[in-house]
Write a structure and sequence with these properties.
single chain, 250 residues, mainly alpha, Serine Threonine Protein Phosphatase 5, Tetratricopeptide repeat, 0% strand
Length: 250
């Protein structure tokens, strides 16, 4: 299982957008390019976003938000070296822009430098100014999960949940780790608790259906997966649930 880029991108873009009013020191054309780049990135037009962020950086290379946007666009394309350079430049400009460490860490992991990536995630998690420590903890857990270091993985996933009980990815990580350890009943219990807290989260509903299936609770699995299909019939989660239903014994 890999670090989910979509999750990281949602978090980082959400933190870019409130920054727009603070860009008064940059030229208007740079602000416009940045705003347009954010819009393109949110809507999946990565090449267009990259072009706009390059324009913004060319007009004002000392704006940390512009550098972060540029790094996000490069990361989305899997171009890790320029992404890392952009994130590091953002931190040089503003050492207190703690959330950029999440982005830098993810890019380092993507580039293959896993130890450096883990170090950056840990630094981000420990930084009291980090607005999303739960994301840092979850992603650090994910790196350990990929390395099959399950005790460390579950510790960091639990740290994520402890920092933000309304962040579903921490619960998903705990459940994934328990399933990898063959503890399917415990995984179901974790996901049931998460669904009780966040009953409208479709991703948790899908995971619970899958956990029921692994635990051999086929009737409950079918009910959960069918509910996901009804709630997201044309979306990726609904399609995943429909595909999973094919393996549920009747």
């Amino acid at each position: 299982m890999m670090i989910r880029p979509a999750v990281l991108l949602r978090a980082t873009l959400a933190l870019l957008l409130p920054a727009l009013p603070a860009l008064a020191q940059s030229p208007p054309e740079a602000e416009m390019s940045f705003s347009t780049g954010v819009m393109h990135l949110r809507e999946g037009r990565v090449d267009l976003a990259l072009a706009e962020f390059k324009k913004a950086v060319k007009a004002d290379g000392k704006n940390a938000y512009f550098q972060k946007g540029l790094g996000l666009a490069y990361s989305k394309k899997g171009e890790w070296k320029p992404a890392i350079a952009a994130f590091r430049r953002a931190l040089e400009i503003n050492p207190y822009y703690a959330d950029v460490r999440n982005d830098l860490a993810a890019a380092l992991v993507g580039s293959g430098d896993r130890e450096a990536g883990k170090k950056e995630f840990l630094t981000a998690f420990s930084d009291p100014t980090n607005p999303t420590p739960e994301v840092s903890a979850r992603n650090l857990g994910q790196v350990f999960f990929e390395e099959k270091n399950y005790p460390e993985a579950i510790n960091w996933y639990r740290s994520s949940v402890n920092r933000n009980k309304d962040y579903p990815d921490g619960y998903l990580g705990i459940a994934d780790t328990l399933a990898a350890l063959g503890q399917n009943t415990e995984a179901v219990l974790q996901l049931e608790a998460a669904v009780a807290l966040m009953p409208t989260d479709i991703g948790l509903q899908l995971a619970l259906g899958q956990a029921f299936l692994r635990a051999g609770r086929f009737g409950e699995a079918r009910a959960r997966l069918e509910a996901v299909v009804r709630k997201d019939p044309a979306g990726p989660l609904g399609r995943a649930a429909a595909d999973q239903l094919k393996s549920v014994p009747k």
